[in-house]
Amino acid sequence: MALTVTADEVAGLVRLLGFDPWSLTLAERRLLRHVHDREQAAWLPRLGRLVEPPAPGLGFPAFLLAMQPFADLRDGIGRAKSMLELDTATADRLQRFVDRYRDWLAG
């Protein structure tokens, strides 16, 4: 069954995400994840090299880093390919992000 969503629906979810990512229902979170497959595929493998073990699993919402509410963290990460390339403040913020959102798509 194909999942369809309008641009307005996605924009509405992103606005809520900017306010409080936890305010989205589990169904809305999963819909947003579905819409951002490309961003998920780009960020998830990278995160495993940028944070302390355990690496984020397949269900981690790595795509959030491509979204405007997390732009400052994404900008801090820049082109880093390993945690050694991150400054301490960014590494700490990224680790907190991963720890906080580890179960975001699980409910």
Can you offer a commentary on this structure?
This protein is an all-alpha fold. It has one domain (7-101). It is 54% helix and 0% strand. It has five helices and no strands. It has helices spanning 7-19, 26-35, 37-50, 71-77, 88-101. The mean pLDDT is 88.
Mean pLDDT: 88
Low-pLDDT residue intervals, each spanning 5 or more residues? none
Terminal-residue CA separation: 22 Å
Summed up, the helix count is 5
Characterize the overall form.
globular
Strand tally, please? 0
Compute the gyration radius: what is it?
14 Å
Name the helix and strand elements from N-terminus to C-terminus, one letter apiece. HHHHH
Major sheet description: none
Beta fraction of the residues? under 5%
Structural class: mainly alpha
Count the domains. 1
Helical content class: 40-55%
In terms of quaternary structure, what is this? single chain
Which short descriptors sum up this protein?
single chain, 107 residues, mainly alpha, 5 helices
Explain briefly what this protein structure is:
This protein is mainly α. The chain contains 5 helices and no strands.
Write the layout of secondary structure elements.
Blueprint: H1 7-19, H2 26-35, H3 37-50, H4 71-77, H5 88-101
